[in-house]
Structures are given as structure tokens and as C-alpha cells.
Records
---
Amino acid sequence: EDEKSEDGSSPLDRWHLEAEGHKLRYVPSTLPDMLDISKVCPSALPENHGAGAAVENVLSGLDLHDRDIEIAMPVQIVQDLTTQTGIWRGVPAKTCKMQLQYLAVTCKDCYPALRIHLYDGAEIYSAPFTVFGKLRAAVYIGDAYLVITAADQVRAFVKRFDHLVRQSIVGPD
């Protein structure tokens, strides 16, 4: 999906443009890219650290104040960051604290345009996916996306997202 069109835009750029004015629903594989401090401060993480690896970069470059973005993710992503476990193992405590502060400030500053729901990943699982309005759903499968455009299947992803929101143990406010 890294292929650029003649105008230099990526498929993600085009999907965002086509879905402008519609809600974006996002279930990330790890910490959402626009909330990752290494995107705004590359020196924040050690050079060979894996916390930013294999992130789908779905929201990178978006003005979070101009969109209606809803994110549902496992609370364990934040817990791992807090306890320096999982992909955050070996990252200095100071860096993890900076990341948590950046996450909190960004969520507060962008609310209600940006809303994050945390569900218990031990109780419910979801593959990472994004729903771009009512036009398409993109399932993240590593370095590529499986793109779905059939209206009934996109609605099924919206329904799945809504289920994750209803199962949330921490709401956006």
C-alpha cells in the first residue's frame, strides 16, 4: 500500500480525503500513531526500540481538531506503557512517562473530536481495522491492508466497532 499515485498521494491519503466529513473509526494494533510521542519527538525512543514498529500510521498527518475520530483499543496497551512491559520493555521510565503525558494532553486537547474507548483485551479481541465513513473498511495485516468496500461488509465493521465501544471499561471522558 506504499504505492503513490500520480499526484503523490498514498491510498491512505485518498481514503481520508474521500471520507472527509464522516466519522473515522479506528482499532489500532498498538498505540495509535498520532498519539505516539516518537512521531512528534523522534529522539524520545531509543533508536532500536520496537514500540513504533509495524504501526499502521492510519492517522498520521491528520489535524485531529478537524475530524470526528473514535478509537477503541485494549486497556492493556496503556497498562504495558505504564508498567514498561510488552513492546515498552527496556524503554526508560522517563520516556514512558513522557509518552503517557503526551497521550493524556492530546486526548484532552482534541476531545470531543477525538474519543478513545478502552476495552479489556483479555475479555475481547479485535484485529486492527479502520472504517472510513461508510465507504470502506481497511483491516491491517502487517505491512498491508485488506480493503473492503461492499456496503454490507463496511456496516458489519461499524457494528463490530460499536460492540467494542459498548464493551469499554474506560470511556473517552
---
Amino acid sequence: MFRLLDDLERGAQGLEITGLRIGAILLLSFGAGLWDWRERRIPNRLCLGGAMAGFLLNDWPFAAAGLGLALAIHLPLFVLRATGGGDVKLMAALGALMGIDQWLRMFLISSILGGVVALGLVLIRGALGETLKRSWFVVTSLGRGIAPYIAKPELDVTTGLGRTLPRGVVVAIAVVLWLGL
């Protein structure tokens, strides 16, 4: 496993972030951000096109590793209904375009940014107490091996009962910050 990662890293060093890759990354992330903002969904064809571009513009193992890591991180969240399917597919497509190293950097930025935005929204709405209670419920439920959405349907992003964050917008902003760094 470590040898595969070393080989991928050596291969990625030769793959500079070219203008074409940057264009594809920006097109995918901004398209997803706009669509998620307006429709609260990210279309399959956009994510599929992004993933295909990742495999066309990169070495196959490089793109597959980035896509695979994104899926490994996001699929458990999807199974727990903590994130939507469009978010999973968007991050997988970006993984194929960016590869492991750059995707991890962008993922870290998007995670921090998403937390800051979510905290801001919670504070603006005056829902800090309720959010802390729900967070504790999630932690204790997972500790008991129970999916939190089973007891509290508002924790299931697919029901529309809870408040969700348009993750595509956060990812688009994170991509711009990633490019700046």
C-alpha cells in the first residue's frame, strides 16, 4: 500500500496543475456551487463529466487514487445520511482531477470553511444550544453503533426536515482558496 502511494506521489510530481486542469476544476466546482445554491442539488452529469475529465487529463492511477480517497472519506457520511449523494460525487470528481495530495489540501480547506460557515449560520439563527445538543446526540449514537438519523429524522439530509448547508458553494469557495495557496 505504501509503495503504491509512493509511486503515485512520484508520478504526481510530474503532473503539474496545468491551465486545462485548473479550468476543469473551476468549471466543475463553480457549476456545482451555482447549481447547489439554486436547486439544492448537484447534477450527476456535471460530476460524471468532471470525473471523466480527471481520467482524461491525468494518469489513470493518479486519477483513480484521488477519486478513491474522496469516496473512502465521503461514502460513510452518505451512508449515515450526513451528506448528500451529489456532494459525494462532486468530491470524487474533484479527486480524479486533483489527485490525492491536492485534493487533501482542498478538502482540508473546505472542511474548515464549511465549519466556519455552519457556525456562523448557527450563531445568526440563535441555535447554538440546539446544535450542541444534536452534536452530542450524534456522538453518543455513533458510540453506541446506532445511526443518528434513525432516532432523529431531522439529522437525515434526505428528509428536508433539518437545515443543510449547500456544500457545493463551500467547495467552490474552497477551490478558489486552494488555488490562491
---
Amino acid sequence: MTVLGKKKALILWFNEVGIKDVSLVGGKNAALGEMFRNLTRVGVKVPNGFTVTAYAYRHFLKTSGIENKIKELLRGLDTRNIPDLQKRGGAVRKLILSSDLPEDLIKEVKGAYARLGKVYKQKNPDVAVRSSATA
């Protein structure tokens, strides 16, 4: 995959990411990519997987129409005012949870999950879901 392709990918597999991709997939996912890419070739069994990228998150914010709403909710935020921070954080969380994912992202995640099932010869493989902040 080209660098530009990586930057606009919704999904990246562990074999496609490494420590240099923290800004694309976050620290935990970049570390999982490093482990998968480097340890499996020496016989350590590291489960394969995929990551939903930071670009996918930004794509969701834009296509759902909530990006500007979030900016408005956070305008003038004083992070030292804990009650207000909690109130605004709750409002942002509610907005995100009530918004629909874009169809292309749903399709990509479902496709990656199905591919993972084929890798492990299971119709519904168990997975771990982790959040990973980007730098």
C-alpha cells in the first residue's frame, strides 16, 4: 500500500502497520503491528487483526455531520472547570453514540472481520477491541 493510501485507509491490517504509523492507528495498534510483523516470523504466535484508523474516525465525524457540532460544544472550554468539562464531554459522547457510521466504514469493518474469520477458519471469531489514541 502506498503512503498516501495508508493515510486515507479506513482499515489497516497488523502486517501493514508499525511504530512509524502511530499517527494513523495509535500507539497500541502500532505496537500490535510491530509484534505481528516481527515476532510471527520467528515463531511467536501473535494473533492477526486489523485496526480502524484515525482517518476512519475523522471520516465518521465529517460524514455524520457532527464535526462542527462537536467544535461548537467545545468552544470556550476551560479544562480546569471539571463540572463543565464533564457536562460537555457527556454531550459529545451522546452526539457520537447517536450518530450513524458511514456505509463505507461499515462495509470495510464487516469485510475485515469476515477476512479474519477466514484466516482462523471461524464464522464468528472472537476479537478484542481496543481504543488507541494517536500522537
